[in-house]
Design brief:
3-stranded antiparallel beta sheet, coiled coil, membrane, 265 residues, transmembrane, transmembrane helix, 9% strand
């Protein structure tokens, strides 16, 4: 009996030892894989940090930030002037795809501020859509004119006009101004002229196409506050929002689609 128990005991010990070795082997393999994955992850993090720093440096150069990293208050005017001179024949600075990529990264990195215009989820979704527009432009896969005709580019111009008019102090305002300027330059290089009528200005009624406002715009406290001081003009129309920019080529021209002040407000 003792001999039988000893033999079984030895067998169990041997089996346990083999099982233990297998477990240790599996653990070692997993540890090795985890270590390799961690090394790969750390390398990716380092790459992202380097790319982020490169982007920040380039963005700071483009918008002329001060010694404290603050964006100048007149950044919108500076960006427009810089891109206007570039469109007139200057080819200095970053190539067009890089400009659009930088604008896209700016929109992704900046904090979307809903303010009093839209809900936070709407604002974040719109900024994401605007960044995708610029990504598509930089890739060059779809002709710009086709995207303009389909309305894919509208969101960048629409958001920029709204922020610069109703939320000029927003941190998104200069970022959107940069994105708008980059997109206008891309269109200009394809022989397309973009016209976004300034909001809260009077324009000839024959130069625009009037549309109905979306509910979020009609309910906006910022818009309501602005029109309290305004009256319906006798001549022309008062622009409250631009849903789609006007544009023209050598063979075609389309007016901007705008929301105007009328008795329904």
């Amino acid at each position: 009996m003792l001999e039988f128990w000893t033999e079984n005991h030895i067998t169990l010990i041997a089996a346990g030892a083999v099982l233990g070795l297998l477990i240790i082997g599996v653990l070692l393999v997993r540890i090795r894989r985890d270590a390799q994955a961690m090394t790969s992850f750390e390398a990716k993090v380092d790459t992202l940090k380097a790319e982020n720093q490169q982007f920040r440096t380039e963005f700071a150069r483009l918008v002329n930030t001060d010694s404290n990293g603050e964006v100048p208050k007149n950044i919108a005017e500076q960006v427009r002037a810089r891109f206007a001179s570039d469109a007139q024949g200057t080819e200095q600075g970053l190539p067009m795809p890089a400009l659009c990529r930088t604008a896209s990264e700016s929109l992704k990195s900046a904090r979307a501020e809903p303010g009093l215009m839209f809900s936070e989820s709407d604002a974040a979704d719109e900024m994401h859509r605007a960044s995708l527009v610029l990504d598509n432009i930089s890739s060059g896969e779809t002709p710009i004119l086709s995207q303009l005709e389909s309305g894919e580019l509208d969101i960048v111009f629409r958001l920029s006009a709204r922020h610069q008019t109703y939320q000029p102090q927003s941190t998104m305002s200069p970022v959107l101004a940069y994105a708008e300027a980059a997109l206008k330059l891309a269109c200009s290089r394809e022989g397309i002229t973009i016209w976004v009528p300034p909001l809260l200005t009077v324009q000839p009624s024959e130069s625009v196409a009037e549309i109905q406002p979306e509910p979020q715009l009609r309910d906006s406290t910022l818009v309501r506050r602005a029109i309290n001081r305004l009256q319906i003009p006798d001549n022309g129309v008062l622009i409250l929002d631009c849903q789609s920019p006007g544009w023209s080529t050598r063979s075609e021209q389309r007016p901007p689609k705008v929301v105007t002040l009328d008795s329904s407000w």
